[in-house]
Design goal:
It catalyses: 4 hydroquinone + O2 = 4 benzosemiquinone + 2 H2O. Lignin degradation and detoxification of lignin-derived products. It holds the Pfam family Cu-oxidase_2. This protein has 569 residues and is mainly beta. The chain has a domain of 196 residues: Cupredoxins -  blue copper proteins (Immunoglobulin-like, Sandwich), CATH 2.60.40.420. The chain contains 5 helices and 32 strands. The strands form 7 sheets. Strands 10-9-12-17-14-15 form a 6-stranded mixed β-sheet, with no helix packed on it. The chain has a 6-stranded mixed β-sheet with strand order 21-20-25-30-27-28. α4 links the parallel β22 and β23. The N and C termini lie far apart (77 Å). The structure holds CU-O-CU linkage and copper (II) ion (CU). CU-O-CU linkage (C2O) binds next to β5 and β31.
């Protein structure tokens, strides 16, 4: 009897195991996003109305497994048009649901809705979603958590729990008002008034009647922090008092595990970090402050939250949290250079292009353009890639590309190198012409080409570093150096062995980075600086990847229910 029972149990286990294997297919999830104005109270008890999703700031978290598909029905109940982007989701063959306004779609008008089909492939870990129209992403954003598939494990001991940490900018004024005013004046939006962690400003500000973000932890447990830099224009340092941070992933791809006292994360980037609650039971500050190497720096404010052990007695531990100084270039570089790709089986197989078909060398600059209607001065601030300042069209580039009948929306002549070579990283560029050309220019790539993009910062304008982000791909970050890129000697310093696979790369001030990828995702893909200030000034361009020769290597048809209408079409 005993034996029989055991057999039965084994048999049942076998059946369960098999059916589990068979059931390991991708799931489909449905979300509804209601975008509307909601009142929030903040510094000094001021109440302001802010455009958010489902009345929450940050917005709702999407939580799925690897390779799932997600439908998000976005109902615009706000006062102006907007779009949503799934930052870091590659959306194979599906630019229709990528989101950047006037690049892959026109805005979802107030009172209407649009359903995005978000197709996951090899992404694993943490990404995020945000509005991709004017400055609306300041309040319209949230986490996109991608758990291992059901038959998959983490490449490290499974954490006891996870916690999303969203680093944000806080403006007392409305984002749309701010950018509209700055654009019509030709000036810069003022720096953020404060910074938030998961919507909380914390206890460091004047009349801080704010609540602190508190993360509850149990003694001896390990937590996976999913850290997202959703700030508008600020790179960030982040640290927790007395607790070291173990970095395990960036931009939804695992990295070689390393431990540090702090992280440095650029806008757009996401980092998965393990923290072990192994200190004396108590309450510890976590804190964030900007890192900046720009001549136009953000406010040097620290925002704090609390890591709080369950059953800890007494008040907030006086133990201070130490962060690098805001201008500590070495602290930023020393952290960033430790990030390396991990060859764990859970990562996408390493496919670093070795022989390059297409090279693009891009000089990044801030500029000024003549402005007839600007009330303050006859020029306006602008920014450019290879001296082209991106001019957002009225009809999206994707529609114009797909329906060849629409012309005059964009041209295919984005320069593959800077039109003028000067000492890009030199100190005295005051004699140089700071003008740029306005244009809507794309780079057209053949399907499958091996592409290398070298991004070069210049000291033209304010100088400083830039977080450059490409839609539709993760690229291998193969090289970084200081000064002007030398295409003869610098490639010998490339890391072609374990380069990180990321979607947003920190291009250092007075320096360059090289990234590589295979153009195997047909579509229309935006590339831009993830400082909103720079992107809205024109520091953007478009990569078009042509169809391959088969249906499976071609752009999917547009959604049957149609795309949001562009005004005038
Ligand atoms: Cu995170 Cu084009 O965006
Ligand atoms: Cu920038």
């Amino acid at each position: 009897m005993g034996l029989l029972k055991q057999d039965l149990v084994l048999w049942l286990l076998g059946v369960l195991f098999l059916s589990n294997l068979l059931l390991c297919r991708a799931d489909v999830h449905y979300y509804d996003f209601f975008v509307r104005e909601t009142n929030f109270t903040s510094l000094c008890n001021t109440t302001k109305s802010m455009l958010v999703v489902n009345d929450s700031y940050p917005g709702p978290e999407i939580r799925v497994h690897r390779q799932d598909t997600v439908y998000v029905n976005v109902h615009n109940q706000g006062n102006y048009g907007l779009t949503i982007h799934w930052h870091g989701v590659k959306q194979p063959r599906n630019p229709w649901s990528d989101g950047p306004e006037f690049v892959t779609q026109c805005p979802i008008q107030p009172g209407t809705n649009f359903t995005y089909e978000v197709i996951l492939s090899d992404e694993i870990g943490t990404l995020w979603w945000h509005a991709h129209s004017d400055w609306t992403r300041g309040s319209v954003h949230g986490a996109f958590v991608i758990l291992p598939a059901e038959n998959e494990t983490y490449p490290f001991p499974t954490p006891d729990a996870d916690q999303t940490i969203i680093l944000q900018s806080w403006y007392n004024r409305d984002y749309k008002e701010l950018i509209d005013e700055a654009t019509s004046n030709g000036t810069a939006v003022a720096p953020a008034d404060a910074y938030a962690i998961n919507g909380h400003l914390g206890d460091t500000y004047a009349c801080a009647n704010e609540t602190l973000f508190r993360m509850q932890v149990d003694y001896q447990k390990t937590y996976l922090l999913r850290i997202i830099n959703a700030a508008m224009n600020e790179q960030k340092f982040f640290a927790i008092a007395n607790h070291r941070l173990t970095v395990v992933a960036q931009d939804a791809s695992y990295v070689q595990i390393f431990t540090n006292d702090y992280i440095m994360i650029s806008p757009g980037q996401t980092m998965d970090v393990l923290v072990c609650a192994n200190q004396n039971m108590g309450q510890y500050y976590m804190a964030t402050r900007p890192f900046s190497d720009s001549a136009a720096p953000p406010r040097n404010n620290i925002t704090r939250g609390v890591l709080q052990y369950t059953n800890s007695v007494g008040g907030l531990n006086a133990s201070l949290v130490t962060l690098p100084a805001m201008t500590d270039l070495d602290a930023a570089a020393n952290f960033t250079r430790r990030i390396k790709n991990s060859n764990v089986t859970q990562n996408p197989p390493m496919k670093v292009p070795m022989d390059i078909d297409r090279r693009v060398y891009v000089a990044i600059a801030t500029n000024t353009l003549p402005c007839d209607n600007c009330p303050i001065q006859p020029t306006r601030l602008a920014a450019s890639l290879n001296n082209v300042s991106f001019d957002f069209p009225q009809i999206d580039v994707l529609q114009a590309y797909y329906n060849r009948s629409i012309s005059g929306v964009f041209t295919e002549d984005f320069p593959l190198q800077p039109p003028v070579f000067y000492n890009f990283t030199g100190d005295d560029l005051t004699g140089l012409n700071r003008n740029a050309d306005l244009g809507t220019k794309a780079v057209v790539l053949n399907y499958g080409e091996a592409v290398e993009i070298v991004l070069q910062t210049t000291q033209l304008g304010a100088g400083g570093s830039h977080p450059m982000h490409l839609h539709g791909f993760s690229f291998y970050w193969v090289g970084t150096g200081s000064g002007n890129f030398n295409n003869v000697t610098d490639p010998s310093s490339y890391n072609l062995v374990d380069p990180p696979l990321i979607n947003t790369v920190h291009v250092p001030a007075r320096g360059w980075v090289a990234v590589r990828f295979f153009a195997t995702n047909p579509g229309v893909w935006f590339m831009h600086c993830h400082f909103e200030r720079h992107s809205s000034w024109g520091m953007d361009t478009v990569f078009i990847v042509k169809n391959g020769t088969t249906v499976d290597t071609s752009i999917l048809p547009p959604p049957a229910s149609g795309m949001p209408r562009c005004s005038g079409t």
